[in-house]
Specification:
Strand content: 25-35%
EC number: 2.4.2.7
Number of domains: 2
Low-confidence stretches: none
Largest sheet: 7 strands, mixed
GO cellular component, one term: cytoplasm
Catalytic activity: AMP + diphosphate = 5-phospho-alpha-D-ribose 1-diphosphate + adenine
GO molecular function, one term: AMP binding
Strand order of the largest sheet: 5-6-4-3-7-8-9
Helix content: 25-40%
CATH topology of the largest domain: Rossmann fold
CATH architecture of the largest domain: 3-Layer(aba) Sandwich
Radius of gyration: 22 Å
Number of strands: 9
Structural class: alpha/beta
Protein name: Adenine phosphoribosyltransferase
Order of helices and strands: HHHEEHEHEEEEHEE
CATH class of the largest domain: Alpha Beta
Amino acid sequence: CVVCFVLPLISRENFNTCGVLFQYSITVYREIATRLCKMSVDERVKKINSCVKSYPNWPKAGIIFRDLFPVFQKPEVLRNLIDLFKEHIKENFADVQAIVGIESRGFLFAPILALELNISFIPIRKKGKLPGKLRQSSYTLEYGEDTIEIQEECITPNMKCVIADDLLATGGTMNAAINLLQQCNADVKECLVAIELPDLNGRKKLSVPVFSVLKF
């Protein structure tokens, strides 16, 4: 910063003027940094997308499995993913109080995101894996039903929450998670997912907005 170098050479009479210029330069640099960050969103998304591997006909015929795990093998790409989530939350839900992660792959990045935002991480787990007083929500699977649970003591009335998971497909699990939090009188602001499969219309089942980084 040029202003920093000339400060020692400026007279006391002009110091206030220099101070104003210095503050202005900081503001300008911040605006430039913000713009550069926004400009690089597409580039970061491309890097994340390049790490996702696709496996046709797995785990069964007709299914294309999108494997997000390679993202976690490259710290710089994982940083891109976390930063995209973090920037989105700060821009849209600055007062959010908790990131709620869904077992199991939601646990991969939800705690990191909560730590970055300096807010709570709250787990939603499958039935029988949490102690204490619980709330339950069930959802239908292709060949049956599954149940998820949350500890009541983790949620306070009107707590502003964002749900995080790796994938939004048919929306069954995410919808159950929303219902679970609403049972606890939480204020669910949004659902964050790394990957969305739009052809399965999962977001249409949900009562809150969805932010997804990748769509396949």
